[in-house]
Structure formats: C-alpha cells, structure tokens
Amino acid sequence: MSASGGTRAIVAALLANLSIAVAKFVAFLFSGSSSMLAESVHSVADSGNQGLLLLGGKRAQREATPQHPFGFGRERYIYAFLVSIVLFSVGGMFALYEGYEKIKHPHELEHWYWPVGVLVFAIVAEGLSFRTAIKESNPLRGTKSWKEFIRHAKAPELPVVLLEDFGALVGLVLALGGVGLSLLTGDGVWDGIGTLCIGILLILIALVLAVETKSLLLGEAAGAEVVQQIEAAAVAGDTVTGLIHMRTLHLGPEELLVAAKIAVRHDGTATEIASAIDAAESRIREAVPIARVIYLEPDIYSESEAAKGADPEATPGGPTAPPAAH
C-alpha cells in the first residue's frame, strides 16, 4: 500500500511541478521577477526530486545478490537523502542568492499580470498535488499526527512529497506576497525579500528531510506496535516459552529483519525445538508480513543471567521482560 500510494503521490507531484516550472519561467521572462525565477528553479528541483524518488523505488526492487544478500530496499532511503541535498542546494541556496541580488539591485516589475496569474495557477496545481499526497498518506498515518507520521514513517516517499508540496504552497504564498508588495509600493526590494523567505523555507525543509532520512539510512527498528505483534506471535506455542531478547531492523520500508533469542523448555528434544522455531517463524510472518528475514536462536531462560543486565560487549540493548510463567 505504501509503495503504490507513494508512487501515485510522486507522479501527481511530478506532473504538477513540470507544468508549474514552465509557467513560472515564462512569467520570469516577461516580468523580471526574482521570486518567479527562484520559484521556477524550485519547481525544476522538485521535478528532479520526484524523478529521484521514482528511480530509487525502481532500483530497490532488484533481486538480492551474493554481494548484497539482503537486497536493495535501502536504495529508497539513499535517493530520499539525495532529494534533501538537491532541495537544500539547488532550491534553498539559489533562492537565497537570488534574493540577495534582488535586494542589492532592485528593479521595477514589468508585466505584473504574468507572475500574479502564474502564481495563482501554481497554487491551484500544488494544492491538488498536496491533496493527493494527503489522501494517499491517511491510510498509513492512521491515528498519528502529521508530525508523528513524518518522524516515524519507514517509507520515505510520502513524507518527502508532503513536505515538498507544503513547502511549495507556502513558498508560492511568499512569492505572491513579495510580488504584491512590490507592485503596491513600487519597490522591487519586496520581491527580493520574498525570495529570501522562500530560500530559508526550503533550507529548513531540506534539513528536516536530511535528519529523518539519515536515521532511516543508519537503520531503524520496527515500531513499538510491530514489535509487540512479533513478541506475541513468537511465544504463542508450547515449546517457546518467552523472548530473552530481540532486535529488529528495517532493510527497507517493506522489509524487516528479526533476530531473537527465544526461551525454550529445558526438556525439549532437538526435533521439538526445531519444529517450534519453524512454527514461531510462520506465526511471525503471518502477524507481520514484512518480516522477510527471521533468525531465532533457542536458549534456556535464566533469571540470574537476566538480572545481570546487558552485556556491554554484546549487541546494544538489554533483555526484554521475563517470559510469561509456564
């Protein structure tokens, strides 16, 4: 669902930004508005960003190889991180430079109806794109706030498109304000100030995207709700009596690695333990379909060992809560 929904939102944003970029650039040629030039570059950068997201989604579908045994799911994170860099450099830094030049060397706007008309058209087009992104995000967001969704989403495409579209809408309003004030006062400095505000906005959005995608690239664990589902599925048998500790890691938005040490009965035979592990893996995959890679290690739970806490030389983290009584 997240992949298909993300693709629809990306394509909608791509089509909107390509048409808007052309319209903005034509308006810049006729009016000389720096806000229009900054906004046209912003739309071109956004179009390139959506192309990067589509490319990342395509490359992430490649089959695993001996050199990359866990597949290429993280390619989607890499390309999302590239988007934040493009948005920061091509979008934000260019707008800051253009705004500074406009304030330093202001000039009167010509053919004002071009930028105003294009901005109104762009606001409508970006609004429709933003609406699509919201519609596709809502099923995945559930009861989370938008801030929580952007912070904790494992699929990067929808948060990226949401922030891009939101930034584009706010930027268009700033550009419209800059052009409007320039027309009312006859002072082109306001156009430059609007351009500076657009640059600052784009840089802030780029920094948020960079921080979130960096976390995904480093490797994030499954969400608390998913962890609870895995724990419940793993111990729903007679032989597996509890979890000693567990680690989860997203190999991609729809691929999860699960590694756990499970407590088994001390009198179980090797055949019984092997069968119990196979059954636990099946239950985990049924409860959490994205759990593609599962490693379960049997052990005998010891309260005295658990009381010692985590081994500082072992995998970071400590034991989970003691297994249920049996």
Molecular structure report:
This protein is mainly α and 326 residues long. The protein contains 10 helices and 3 strands; from the N terminus they run H-H-H-H-H-H-H-H-E-E-H-E-H. It has helices spanning 2-31, 34-59, 75-104, 113-141, 146-152, 157-185, 189-218, 224-234, 270-287, 303-307, and strands spanning 240-252, 255-264, 291-299. It has a 3-stranded mixed β-sheet. The model is unreliable at 317-321 (pLDDT under 50).
Offer a concise description of the structure.
The chain has 326 residues and is mainly α.
Key words describing this protein structure:
326 residues; 3-stranded mixed β-sheet; mainly alpha; single chain; 10 helices
Taking the sheet with the most strands, its summary is:
3 strands, mixed
Say what oligomer this is.
Answer: single chain
Amount of helix? 55-70%
Summed over residues and divided by their number, the pLDDT gives a mean of 83
Instruction: Give me the side-by-side strand order of the main sheet.
Output: 1-2-3
Structural class: mainly alpha
* SS element count, helices: 10
N-to-C order of helices and strands: HHHHHHHHEEHEH
What fraction of the residues are assigned to beta strands by DSSP? 5-15%
SSE layout and pairing:
Layout: H1 2-31, H2 34-59, H3 75-104, H4 113-141, H5 146-152, H6 157-185, H7 189-218, H8 224-234, E1 240-252, E2 255-264, H9 270-287, E3 291-299, H10 303-307
Parallel strand pairs: 2-3
Antiparallel strand pairs: 1-2
